[in-house]
Design a protein that fits this description.
The complex is a heterodimer of chains A (383) and B (422).
Chain A lengths: L1 H35 L29 H33 L5 H15 L3 H12 L11 E2 L3 E4 L2 E4 L1 E5 L1 H29 L5 H18 L4 E5 L2 E4 L5 E4 L2 E3 L1 H27 L3 H9 L4 H31 L11 H13 L2 H30 L5
Antiparallel strand pairs in A: 1-2, 2-3, 3-8, 4-5, 6-7
Chain B lengths: L1 H6 L5 H25 L9 H19 L7 H10 L3 H27 L18 H13 L7 H16 L12 H22 L15 H27 L4 H16 L2 H15 L8 H27 L2 H9 L4 H31 L11 H9 L8 H33 L1
Classes of the chains: A alpha+beta (383), B mainly alpha (422).
Chain lengths: 383, 422
């Protein structure tokens, strides 16, 4: 009996405390909203947003609803996160491997790179790139082409855009190629397990993924044209580029800062992962007659990835959350558009901040769940 | 590649060393003269060859120098460290030349062509950095809009708080058992009182300075300091809650931790500035700075809890069993046996959390508190001082870098220290 009370009482008290806090807040919010004449509800989502966005991936204008503005802004956030993740992975892997180099200079340069970019607050880095570094770029009329067809100017980075015809044919060819590769891999594995023969899976896959899309160009009626950015004079001293795709400086500054900052953490994860593989593993693999390539592919990488992937995913998650700093330099991401402009216009503080937080929370929880599933899958199964 | 390069080498090792060092020195000299004195000794070569000339020369030089063992200490360590393979030699040269090329422009911008004299924008005539800007705005960057003649109050408050932090070192042996009590309970309260009465004033004959005037780097310190001392006890409770065997307590702790860890700090700050006032009683006014500190504390407590949980999990089960077998209850066991050991384990982790916290504080700029990033934005848009954003951000970056680098080195040291003790 005594034991039961001991277990029951603290739980009851905790629950009561939580209920009390929530109740207190709810009652206050109710009275505050009644006094100010605001009502709680999500009806505003279907109203006309009537504000503009500088940069969007999908078609959007002021007549669209708040809900559509939310979707477009969320896509902008995801775009920054996606680009940041790609670049920080590339940089991070290079730097992480460089830190393990035998070469004194390379090792130390990589170490200083990590120490340098890791210890400066991300917000300051974003400001530096946006307000200081990118402002030093030339005006459109003075811009020299990079790689012949792209222009880096103070107003953004201009690249040629692709104009597809029959894009769906091309895409279905690509998907067909990928599906075929998956089946061939499964088949090759079966052959190896049953007969011990190794099929040249890599070359077959390479051939499939190049030949099938190429065929779509030759006989599928797919065409690809490039629209080049062209300098156009608006007035005596005012020039702009027309055509092509314009990446705004906000996006560039954000992706630069995020990927440089996060790459230092990824580099540390990669280094720890590779260092975590004992030398004995490689020696054992060599002594059973595996080639260096096979050792890397079959012995070192699977084990290193097991150490590298969980913390790296955490860094990707941090990058996604940090991409909300976009609001500070007016890149139209979820926080700026929704928790900033939309909130100012509608005054629905609780609903809008709530939706914004829930969005980030669901991204985080989804990735965390995926990670847990992956960890379970690659766990070392001890007998 | 290796084979063909070896064929051009002489059989005599000394000849190889002479040729190699001559080529290497020539290549470095070329880049050096080029970048420091603008003399291009390979200028007569056609077009692109002139650019790659030192690279090719140095590459040949290094491949001549590469030997198993020469007997010269310097040469052997060179070969072992930066000249093991062709690829390594190439990267070595590339990095060396890049540093040589980048150094003179950076030096002339930051030092040689820079200005620091004068008090106005007109004093900056050189092509380099305008440090006059930093000099004029220095007090604003440090103290925000806090009145100039009252800066001693901030300084002395910080000195007092830091001094009190070290008091623990001088505790006598018989007082040592109260150390935790001092740091977790008494110190935060005293520090809060000092900062409240000294910096905001309003009593003891000190002039009241509203929090809107606080700013600059000192605000960074105030916010991160308070968030740290408040988030630690909260994190401890949450960590214990997460490891509790009472389902209601556990699920609530897990929910709390996962919620705050899943949202970005910037939305938390938005919440504190626009949503939080709605949740308070009608006539209850809470200062914006206080709201921000509460928000960051709640946010950071979740991270703190995870760090402390790591420490709790690292303790062997035997510790719990031993404490239970002595008849200790839950609280007695945790206060006297588990927490003292676990907290010692997590000190490096807490230092890392604090480091992240300091790096996160510039964000309060977004809700309108003029922390150093905010002061920079203000100075940047001042009509008298347009066009010096670069200097401002480099200055702030240097300050933060020094603080964060020192802290991260310190936390590495702590990690080493506590690793060996166990």
């Amino acid at each position: 009996m005594n034991n039961k009370i001991k277990r029951f009482l603290p739980q009851l008290l905790t629950i009561l405390f939580v209920v009390f806090v929530f109740g207190f807040f709810t009652i206050n919010a109710q009275t505050n909203m009644d006094n100010r004449g605001i009502d709680f509800g999500f009806g505003f989502l279907s109203q006309e947003a009537s504000f503009d966005m500088q940069f969007t991936l999908l078609d959007y204008d002021g007549q669209d609803s708040y809900l559509w503005a939310y979707v477009v802004a969320l896509l902008n956030t995801l775009l920054v996160s996606f680009l940041g993740i790609i670049f920080c992975t590339i940089l991070g892997v290079i730097i992480g491997i460089a830190r393990l180099s035998q070469n004194f200079l390379i090792k130390n340069s990589a170490a200083w790179y990590v120490e340098f970019f890791r210890n400066i607050p991300l917000l300051l880095q974003i400001f530096f790139w946006y307000y200081a570094a990118l402002r030093a770029l030339p005006l459109p009329e003075n811009a020299q082409p990079w790689f012949g067809v792209t222009y880096m100017t103070i107003k953004g980075y201009y690249i040629p855009s692709m104009i597809w015809e029959n894009l769906n044919v091309f895409m279905s060819c690509l998907i067909a190629a990928i599906v075929a590769i998956v089946f061939i891999r499964i088949y090759a594995k079966k052959v190896q397990e049953n007969e011990g023969k190794q099929l040249p899976v890599f070359y077959i896959s390479l051939a499939l993924i190049t030949v099938l899309p190429l065929l779509s160009f030759l006989i599928g009626g797919v065409t690809l044209d490039f629209e080049m950015p062209v300098l156009k004079q608006l007035a005596q001293t005012s020039f702009i580029f027309e055509g092509g795709v314009a990446l705004p400086p906000e996006l560039i500054a954000l992706v630069l800062a995020l990927s440089l900052y996060t790459s230092t953490f990824v580099a540390e994860c990669v280094r720890a992962g590779i260092q975590g593989i004992s030398k004995g593993q490689k020696e054992a693999a060599a002594s059973v007659g595996l080639t260096p390539n096979q050792i890397l592919k079959l012995v070192v990488m699977p084990q290193a990835l097991r150490i590298i992937i969980p913390p790296t995913t955490n860094q990707y998650l941090n990058l996604t959350k940090n991409s909300s700093l976009a609001a500070a330099i007016a890149y139209p991401d979820l926080v700026l558009v929704f928790a900033g402009t939309a909130l100012m216009q509608t005054g629905k503080a609780i609903e809008i901040v709530g939706i914004t937080m829930l969005t980030y929370l669901s991204i985080s929880l989804a990735i965390a769940a995926l990670m847990n599933w992956y960890n379970k899958r690659i766990e070392i199964k001890e007998k | 590649m290796n084979f063909s390069l070896n064929r051009i080498k002489s059989q005599n090792q000394m000849t190889n060393i002479y040729i190699g060092s001559a080529l290497l020195i020539l290549s470095i000299l070329d880049v050096f003269l080029n970048s420091f004195f603008r003399i291009n000794i390979s200028g007569s070569l056609p077009g692109n060859l002139s650019i790659f000339f030192p690279l090719i020369l140095g590459f040949l030089g290094l491949s001549y120098l590469r030997t198993e063992y020469s007997g010269y200490k310097f040469l052997d360590s060179l070969n072992k460290n930066i000249n093991t393979t062709n690829f390594n030699a190439f990267l070595t040269l590339f990095i060396t030349f890049a540093i040589l090329k980048a150094f003179p422009p950076a030096l002339s911008w930051m030092v040689l062509d820079a200005n620091i004299s004068g008090d106005t924008k007109e004093a900056c005539t050189g092509t380099g950095a305008c440090w006059t800007y930093i000099k004029v705005w220095f007090k604003r960057f440090m103290y925000g809009m806090y009145p100039n003649e009252l800066h001693w109050r901030i300084n002395s408050a910080f000195l007092l708080v830091i001094g009190l932090g070290f008091v623990g070192y001088f505790f006598k042996e018989n007082l040592k058992k109260y150390l935790a009590l001092y740091y977790v309970v008494i110190y935060p309260i005293i520090a809060f009182l000092i900062i409240y009465y000294l910096i905001s004033g309003g009593s003891f004959g000190l002039v009241w300075v509203e929090t809107g005037a606080w700013g600059g780097l000192s605000l960074t310190f105030i916010v991160s300091f308070f968030c740290l001392i408040f988030c630690f006890p909260l994190g401890m409770i949450l960590a214990l809650g997460r490891r509790s065997n009472l389902p209601a307590v556990r699920y609530i702790s897990v929910g709390y931790i996962e919620f705050w860890r899943g949202v970005p700090l910037i939305t938390v700050l938005f919440m504190s500035s626009v949503m939080f006032p709605m949740f308070l009683p009608q006539d209850f006014f809470m200062d914006k700075l206080v709201r921000v500190i509460i928000a960051i504390t709640l946010f950071e407590a979740a991270y703190c809890a995870e760090v402390i949980r790591g420490g709790l999990q690292a303790l062997p089960r035997g510790q719990y069993d031993a404490a239970k077998s002595l008849g200790m209850g839950y609280w007695k066991m945790h206060i006297f046996v588990i927490l003292p050991q676990a907290l010692k384990l997590v000190i490096p982790g807490i230092a890392n959390t604090f480091l992240a916290l300091v790096k996160d504080t510039p964000l309060i700029f977004v809700v309108g508190l003029a922390e150093i990033a905010g002061m920079l934005a203000l100075a940047k848009t001042n009509p008298k001082w347009l066009g010096f954003a670069m200097e401002g951000y480099i200055f702030a970056a240097i300050i933060f870098w020094i603080i964060c680098y020192a802290m991260s080195k310190y936390s590495y040291n702590l990690e080493d220290k506590y690793k060996t003790e166990r």
